[in-house]
């Protein structure tokens, strides 16, 4: 019987967890696996931290691999062991508690670290980030006071934190540097609808706002904006971005840029060391959404199992906001340009907004708010680069109106409220229904 190789994994997040699932399926007897996890717990679904914060789920509900899974696969899991050294010459790693493990192959999955705005007062008790279960536990403890929370950052994580804290009874204000919320995923119109919805739930939103200082003696008391506005706060949550956690790899002498530089096989500059997850830079890009991270996991697992054909290929990734009652879907490129056309549907009464961006009769971007059932269908056409010429008149109405199975486009228009608008003229036409729909 061939002796198993030693595989050491640094990090126990979603990407390395998925990688091991694929590896155990493809080559169940190839490796003896050891995992070092800086967190004192098993692998869990970080995407579902927001429902834990809001009270919709418990930690037990979001566990991916319980203790039994590690036992079943013969994995040695060191919980609460942060790795502090990689010795590439000896091919060992060492944890802060003195545990040393030898490897034949090593996978670095150190994830990312939240960016902290270095304004005066950022080290005060009551200033938190939002990245892991410890952060959620700290926010839940703070929320027991039912005080005032300020969330800095109007991106995905910031808005999910704001909604969760509001559900826990806190008075919540979101401050965001840009003119509209989630500007990386939404166009201004959808961002404005989102802002209106949040304010209808009692969450105050201040855009074009820059933090000058956090005030307090022994604890957070307020935030001061650059324009002099003072916002009382007993809790400040910074959700302004992440940075790949590359320090360990850099100290080991691996090639590092913004992230740990890897090939499309997920190999670092050392052929015996791989890297997956938010700490990685591949083809000049770093990623924070789960779909590309899972693709990295599949590629690394295949390579470790001996399949050299799998490669990482960049693809578009859809974005959804995990806040109950808010339906939002965004994918692709929706920036304005002369060679692009748009089809837009606005139904103010229903709170529905749909925008498709076309180039050469192909979908390159989609933003849906309020009604998102067709998001996956639009995304499929985007990925396949489908020529939509034959369905252009009915495209904005979604899958159900294709192939003559439902009412024709004119009947669909007639069924809309009087204040609904449809435009397909790249912003030139001001009429409610353009020739794109009526021809």
TrEMBL record:
GO molecular function, one term: nitrite reductase [NAD(P)H] activity
Domain FAD/NAD(P)-binding: 6-291
Enzyme Commission (EC) number: 1.7.1.4
Keywords from the named record: FAD, Flavoprotein, Oxidoreductase
Superkingdom of origin: Bacteria
Pfam family, one: Pyr_redox_2
Domain NADH-rubredoxin oxidoreductase C-terminal as annotated: residue spans: 318-385
Cofactor(s) annotated in UniProt: FAD
Family indicated by similarity: Belongs to the FAD-dependent oxidoreductase family.
Protein's UniProt name: Nitrite reductase (NAD(P)H)
Provenance organism: Nitratireductor basaltis
Gene of this entry: nasD
């Amino acid at each position: 019987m061939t002796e198993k190789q030693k595989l050491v994994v640094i990090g126990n997040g979603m990407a390395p967890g998925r990688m091991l699932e694929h590896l155990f399926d493809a080559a169940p007897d190839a490796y003896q696996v050891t995992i070092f996890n800086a967190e004192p717990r098993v692998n869990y679904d970080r995407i579902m931290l927001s429902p834990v914060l809001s009270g919709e789920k418990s930690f037990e509900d979001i566990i991916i691999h319980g203790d039994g899974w590690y036992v079943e696969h013969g994995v040695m899991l060191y919980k609460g062991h942060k790795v502090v050294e990689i010795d590439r010459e000896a091919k060992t790693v060492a944890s802060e508690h003195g545990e040393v493990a030898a490897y034949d192959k090593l996978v670095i999955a150190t994830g990312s670290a939240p960016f902290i705005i270095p304004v005066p007062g950022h080290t005060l008790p009551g200033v938190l980030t939002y990245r892991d279960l410890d952060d959620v536990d700290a926010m839940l403890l703070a929320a027991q006071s039912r005080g005032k929370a300020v969330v800095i950052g109007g991106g995905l994580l910031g808005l999910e934190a704001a909604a969760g804290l509001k559900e826990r009874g806190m008075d919540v204000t979101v401050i965001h540097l840009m003119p509209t919320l989630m500007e990386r995923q939404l166009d201004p119109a959808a961002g404005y609808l989102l802002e209106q919805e949040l304010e209808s739930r009692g969450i105050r939103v201040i855009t074009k706002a820059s933090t000058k200082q956090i005030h307090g003696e022994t604890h957070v008391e307020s935030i001061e904006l650059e324009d002099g506005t003072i916002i009382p706060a007993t809790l400040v949550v910074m959700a302004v971005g992440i940075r790949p956690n590359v320090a360990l790899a850099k100290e080991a002498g691996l090639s590092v840029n913004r992230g740990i530089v890897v090939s499309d096989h997920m190999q670092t500059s050392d052929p015996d060391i791989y890297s997956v997850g938010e700490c990685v830079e591949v083809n000049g890009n770093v990623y924070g959404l789960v779909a590309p991270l899972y693709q990295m996991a599949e590629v690394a697992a295949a390579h470790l199992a001996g399949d050299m054909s799998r490669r990482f290929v960049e693809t578009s990734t859809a974005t959804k906001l995990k806040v109950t009652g808010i339906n939002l879907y965004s994918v692709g490129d929706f920036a304005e340009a002369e060679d692009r056309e748009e089809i837009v549907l606005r139904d103010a009464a229903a709170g529905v907004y749909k925008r498709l961006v076309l180039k050469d009769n192909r979908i390159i971007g989609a933003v849906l708010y309020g009604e998102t059932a067709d998001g996956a269908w639009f995304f499929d056409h985007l990925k396949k680069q489908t020529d939509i010429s034959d369905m252009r008149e009915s495209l904005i109405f979604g899958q159900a109106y294709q192939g003559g199975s439902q009412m024709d486009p004119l009947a669909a228009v007639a069924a809309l409220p009087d204040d609904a608008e449809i435009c397909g003229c790249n912003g030139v036409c001001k009429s409610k229904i353009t020739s794109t729909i009526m021809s």
